[in-house]
Amino acid sequence: MNKPNEFFQGQSVKSLLLPALLGALAPFVLLLFIVLTKEDVFEFWMLVPLTIIPLGGAFGGVFFYLMGFVWFPIGKHKLIATIFSTIFYFVVLWLSAVLAFNYTGQWD
Q1: pTM of the full predicted structure?
Q2: Cα(90)–Cα(103) distance, rounded to whole angstroms?
Q3: How far apart are CA 74 and CA 93, in angstroms?
Q4: What's the longest Cα–Cα distance across the chain?
Q5: Closest of 64, 61, 49, 70 to residue 5, by C-alpha
Q6: Residue range 12-37, pLDDT digits in tens
Q7: Who contacts 32 (Cβ-Cβ below 8 Å, separation ≥6)?
Q8: How many beta carbons lie within 10 A of that of residue 5, not counting itself?
Q9: Which of 3, 12, 24, 28 is geometrically suited to a Cys-Cys bond with 57, CB 3.0 to 4.6 A?
Q10: Which residues contact 16 (CB under 8 A, 6 or more apart)?
Q11: Cβ–Cβ under 8 Å, residues 25 and 91
């Protein structure tokens, strides 16, 4: 009844934290730079994209780590997994940006 989850193959939450942090840090820093350079036009709705887009980046970073280093660690499968994971990361970032800006009413 208490079988270990074979999907993560023994990965602890601690080992998934760094890829999630790195995946979330890139869009967060970019968005924060954009917001801070125009500090006179900061509005409350800007906090929603500052949280949702890095969450998508964290999910994409964990997926990239699992595909490239856990599920397909060697050979040509790793190359294919890395390419697919990179594309998936940017698609997840794009979809989270669309979700965030649509939620705030800024997506036209």
Answers
A1: 0.82
A2: 20
A3: 27
A4: 57
A5: 70
A6: 778 889 999 999 999 999 988 888 88
A7: 50
A8: 8
A9: 24
A10: 8, 62, 65, 66
A11: no
Residue indicated by tokens 């730079």: 33
Summarize the confidence of residues 85-95 as an average pLDDT. Answer: 96
DSSP at 73: -
For residue 13 the two structure tokens come to 């939450």
Better-predicted residue by pLDDT, 4 or 54: 54
d(CA 5, CA 19): 20
Q: Which two tokens stand for residue 49?
A: 């994209």
Average confidence score pLDDT of the chain: 86
Token pair of 73, please? 């660690």
Report CA-CA distances (Å) from 60 to 23, 40, 45.
6, 32, 24
For the chain, domain boundaries: 18-32+46-104
